[in-house]
Design goal:
By secondary structure, the protein is α/β, with parallel strands linked by helices. The protein has helices at residues 13-21, 30-38, 71-79, 95-108, 120-123, 168-175, 198-210, 284-299, and strands at residues 2-9, 41-46, 49-50, 67-68, 83-85, 112-114, 116-117, 127-131, 134-142, 156-157, 181-187, 214-216, 226-227, 230-231, 236-238, 251-260, 263-275, 278-281, 306-308, 311-315. Helix content is 25%, strand content 29%. Strands 1, 2, 5, 6, 15, 16, 17, 18, 19 and 20 form a ten-stranded mixed beta sheet that branches. It is globular, with a radius of gyration of 18 Å. The two termini are 33 Å apart.
Length: 326
């Protein structure tokens, strides 16, 4: 199985305006899109609602509100996305009506979702994806904001602060899976940090101990390193965001994970450049920066990176076998 993973996929605000003016607008470079379509399964974090309804969430001081037009679901389907996680801090930006519309538009496009639902039980459910004879369960959770949390009878997201490891419901969702492999995709930690914060590391450890085959996080808007089958932050995939000159959130990665009989054996990270409302493969100078940054982030976690044919390769062996040499 080849699994394509991408981080924050923001199709609202200016990206949404581009789509509204031209539903056929090319948001992703052809070569990049072919890589995603060539994977057996593809999962991304959808960092917006998909709707033409709703009013802004009435949270004092909330600065950003992301809503994409309905055609965004078709854009994701055409890209080859099989499943999105909605467990994040933008799923309810335009309220319950827009969230319910998001479910409908995704379903009509043939895309599954995790991390949000019409009630708490649905928001916490896992979704099973299949490729050939292998099955993959996907689970979503976010550690912010608590106000978006689904209730017993109210729509919202799968929320837990994750500061004390992982909650019982999340552990049980992972351990009770009957799939060949389990992917947990948490939206965790603060924005614009260069490495995973302590509570994210603790939660990652707990998820692996619970039996998660692979953990792929997001939220920081910049990619982090890899260790013990944890991709701490996938970074951004498409947006219209201002660029931090140090952290370079305009340079990212597409993550291609190879699984052998449901066991992850390697990650190939493909360097990307996020232009304004358009994502492409990185150029030589951009790829050089990304390579140095990724090597440094992985080395801090004790993981080696090999550059091969324009991709950054990490072998996903047991932690004690992939420690970098002193």
């Amino acid at each position: 199985m080849r699994l394509a993973l991408a981080g924050d996929t923001m199709l609202g605000r200016t990206v949404g305006e581009v789509l509204a003016r031209d539903p056929g607008a090319v948001l992703f470079d052809h070569c990049l899109a072919e890589m995603v379509r060539g994977a057996d399964l593809a999962v991304v974090n959808l960092e917006c609602a998909i709707s033409d309804r709703g009013a802004r969430w009435p949270a004092p001081g909330k600065p950003f509100f992301f809503r994409a037009p309905p055609v965004a679901a078709t854009v994701l389907a055409d890209l080859g996305v099989d499943c999105v996680t909605l467990a994040n801090n933008h799923a309810l930006d335009y309220g319950v009506d827009a969230l319910l519309d998001t479910f409908r538009h995704l379903a009509e496009a043939g895309i599954q979702w995790v991390g949000a639902g019409p009630d708490e039980q649905a928001a916490r459910r896992r979704v099973t994806l299949r490729s050939g004879c292998l099955s993959l369960d996907v689970v979503g959770v976010t550690d912010h904001p608590c106000g978006f949390a689904a209730g017993p009878d109210t729509p919202g997201v799968a929320y837990d602060a994750l500061h004390d490891g992982i909650p019982g419901w999340l552990r049980e969702t992972v351990t009770a899976s009957a799939a060949d492999a389990v992917l947990v995709t948490p939206h965790w930690g603060p924005n614009m940090v260069a490495e995973p914060v302590p509570h994210v590391r603790r939660a990652a450890r707990a998820l692996r101990e619970a039996g998660a085959t692979l953990v792929a996080g997001h939220s920081a808007h910049v990619f982090h390193g890899v260790a013990d089958r944890v991709l701490y932050d996938l970074g951004d995939f498409i947006d219209d965001y201002a660029v931090d000159p140090v952290l370079r959130n305009d340079l990212g990665l597409l993550w291609m994970v190879s699984l052998d009989r449901a066991r992850p054996v390697s990650v190939e990270a493909v360097p990307l450049a996020l232009d304004f409302c358009h994502t492409r493969l990185a150029g030589p100078d951009e790829a050089t920066w990304i390579t140095a940054r990724f090597r440094s982030a992985c080395a801090a976690l004790g993981t080696q990176v090999e550059a091969r044919d324009g991709r950054l390769v990490v072998r996903l062996e047991p932690e004690e076998e992939q420690r970098a040499s002193p």
